[in-house]
Amino acid sequence: MNGWWDRHVVPRLIGCACRQPAVMKDRAKVVPLASGDVLELGCGGAANLQYYDWYKVKRLSGVDPSPELLDRAQNELAASGRSANFVAGVAEALPFASGSFDTVVTTFTLCSVQDPMGALSEARRVLRPGGKLLFVEHGLAPDASPAKWQGRIEPVWKNIAGGCHLTRPVTRAISAAGFVTDTPQGHYMKRTPRWLGWVEYGEARLAS
Ligand SMILES: C[S@@+](CC[C@H](N)C(=O)[O-])C[C@H]1O[C@@H](n2cnc3c(N)ncnc32)[C@H](O)[C@@H]1O
Fold it and tell me: Measured from the CB, is residue 106 less than 6 Å from ligand 1?
């Protein structure tokens, strides 16, 4: 299923699911905190463009492995009149020098990368001292019943949803990767099944 489905259906699914009002509401809480040189992991679709505070963002870069989603991102960029350096690549092997960003943004991406700890370790590498990681990610629900369903549904879900995992911890993984999270928040998104709708968001800094 993966070739044709991933090229033609998944980008449309992501384009639609990732722009639901509840999702956009969570982006709006975090993305405006980005400042300086900013890197977005999984920039495909460019759904965050409208939430950046362009007075604070000096330069925006992004990386995504999907040619179709990168195309969509470039179209969004052109329509917005903004400029950014969106390139093909994966978060686990960022094509950027160490210490070259003030902010790394990850929104609904850590669920889909192959190796979340590898991606977070790369985020650490490219951040300057004092840099921050901004995150809005869905993941493992804190309650037993949705968590049980996440485990049951994930094997099928990840095959139809572009490799999206349901059972990955979010803030716990970010802390384990060496970040300190300031008042992370979590909630179930409205009008979304609980196995899909648990979202954690916040700002994290490199542990000194
Ligand atoms: C659910 S979509 C979210 C897109 C976007 N981050 C957003 O907030 O709307 C997951 C994104 O992660 C990207 N992705 C998958 N594997 C990746 C990897 N290893 N490194 C970076 N991005 C990846 C996908 O191509 C897709 O654009």
Answer: no
